[in-house]
Amino acid sequence: MSDDTSSPSSPPRRGIKSFVVRAGRMGTGQIRALETLGPRFVLPYAPQVLDPVATFGRQAPLVVEIGFGMGQATAQIAQALPGTDFLGIEVHTPGVGALLKLIDEQQLANVRIVQHDAVEVLEHMVAPASLAGVHVFFPDPWHKKKHNKRRLIQAPFVAKLVTRLAPGGYLHCATDWQPYAEQMLEVLSAEPGLRNTAEGYAPKPDYRPLTKFENRGLKLGHGVWDLVFRKA
């Protein structure tokens, strides 16, 4: 049945989600990390505003990363920027377990995780004008044209992100799919609350590490596009 149809007995359709649930294998290390480190570093979703000072034990700039995958980039950035706190949002349990392992191995005190839909986390747990930055690295490109509407970076979601950014806060998106990069540039450029920091696409900021997948693609001649916008 198409997800574009409904009947009087059907529940109302939800808005855009930041994810699609996929199955994934869990390694023993990830399972152990979830059991032993989850209670400390994974914050339960709750429809109430998060207190960053109470959560991290200090006053510091807060950056949200949406969809951190297996967490390698998140951990590297957090290690390189110890003066910044990071809230990673990811729905896939193997990725949560993998990042918890990295938090333990690298002794990262500036990372917390919420395992929930990012749209709802931003709506209910993040205070307006509270974020120094938002990272959206390599979101699902939804290659087929009929699925483009499922892409995360769309005008309503970007407008919501802008309300959560502090003045001067930044939104950094990256993708290796050129049609999505073009859509991102169009959507972000049309948002009146944002200004582009570059003429078009931005040079890769030093803080964003190259992933193994990205390195492999670059060697094959594939492109990667970064977009960095700031709240006006």
UniProtKB/TrEMBL annotation:
Entry-linked CDD domains: AdoMet_MTases
EC number: 2.1.1.33
Chemical reaction(s) catalysed: guanosine(46) in tRNA + S-adenosyl-L-methionine = N(7)-methylguanosine(46) in tRNA + S-adenosyl-L-homocysteine
One GO MF term: tRNA (guanine(46)-N7)-methyltransferase activity
Residue numbers spanned by region Interaction with RNA: 146-151
UniProt-listed InterPro entries: SAM-dependent_MTases_sf, tRNA_(Gua-N-7)_MeTrfase_Trmb, tRNA_methyltr_TrmB_bact
Main EC class the enzyme belongs to: transferase
Coiled-coil zones: none
Keyword NADP belongs to the record: no
UniProt superkingdom: Bacteria
Binding locations of S-adenosyl-L-methionine: E65, E90, D117, D140
Pathway: tRNA modification; N(7)-methylguanine-tRNA biosynthesis
Keyword field: Methyltransferase, S-adenosyl-L-methionine, Transferase, tRNA processing
Binding locations of substrate: K144, D176, T211, K212, F213, E214
Family: Belongs to the class I-like SAM-binding methyltransferase superfamily. TrmB family.
PANTHER family for this protein: 3-DEOXY-D-MANNO-OCTULOSONIC-ACID TRANSFERASE/TRNA GUANINE-N 7 - -METHYLTRANSFERASE, PENTACOTRIPEPTIDE-REPEAT REGION OF PRORP DOMAIN-CONTAINING PROTEIN
Biological role: Catalyzes the formation of N(7)-methylguanine at position 46 (m7G46) in tRNA.
Protein name in the entry: tRNA (guanine-N(7)-)-methyltransferase
